Amino acid sequence: MKRTPYSRQTIDESDIQAVEQVLRSDFLSQGPHISAFEQALQNYLNVKHAIVCSSGTAALHLSYLALELNGAFAFTTPITFAATANMLQAVGAHIRFVDVDPITGILNLEALENALKDVPASAKKIIMPVSLQGIPADLPAIRALAQKYTARVVEDAAHSFGAEYQDGQTYKSASCAHTDCATLSFHPLKTITCGEGGAVTTNHDALAQTIRLLLNHGLQAQAGTYVRKQICWGYNYRLSELQAALGNSQLKRIDAFVAKRRAIARYYEQRLSQKPYTSHLTCVPFHETSAYHLFVLHFHNPSARDVVYRQLKEKGIETGVHYVPLYHFDLYRKCVGNLSLPGAEAYYKGCLSIPIYPQLSQSDQDFVLEQLAACCQTL
Ligand SMILES: Cc1ncc(COP(=O)(O)O)c(C=O)c1O
Asked: What pLDDT shows up at residue 1?
């Protein structure tokens, strides 16, 4: 049976050659491909610093460490991959889960302002929007709230590399035009991949310097001597040369990858706004500037979502629920108590992500739609 995953990497001969060249070179780590990849990311995003690291999770950890969030109040969404919040726990922040839009799953600004009002004015605060599905969170409005309540902002752009948003002019998600930092993931299912990998982007020189130290043991080389200074406690969160070469090769095709994802999303949206689908589901309205990491359906009836998930799996079509609200997990319940946020519950209740990735052919898309239609007939 043919397997249709919900996402997968797109690797071509140029990627293979880029990695092979590194294998034949002198440096497998800490060589020229790291700085080349960082420079290419900076140019693409129009951001001052891009610091590559071993994963999106490492990027989150590094940015939270650099912002010194121990004891800070962290306002984030429960509709995200665990890493966004797990790393907040890891640095000792107090998590405040904020409700989301029931359709996009993105932070609700009114709920955010209410949550910000609810903590002492003098407390240290961070807002952690996630640009879920590939749709940038409303970063200009979030920045305005951050200024009003003196909070820092880090965008989790793991899903939205390649997406844009408007604020008078066009900005890229993770460009940090309205945030202190942003984090990217180069996991195989993301817009571009390094196998595993991530990056922190920022326009702040001091933050960039701290992040570079933290990702390399906290050690600073001194020119002209073997002696290194231990500036802070640090980690080994470095990306390898092999991964950087792959990332750089992939980055050259990012616009084509995103264009293909958008074309698939447009086709799905047109087909899904007809019968038999409309009796059972709605899809998230088409977002022109989304990077379309995910294409999300909302089933009117949550049990229908679970039936369709199983039936599609039997046909080799893999779908996903992105995400179960994090406060449903026992470990989070212990930290934040029994929460039930209406927008997050409504989002989660019937959501299902169907396959979307650049190499999903027209016949693959039609197969997904046909099988989905067949499921709808049985509901
Ligand atoms: C929203 C979000 N943030 C962070 C991460 C963590 O990225 P990584 O898998 O590269 O550690 C992911 C990965 O799936 C994610 O989806």
From this structure: 87
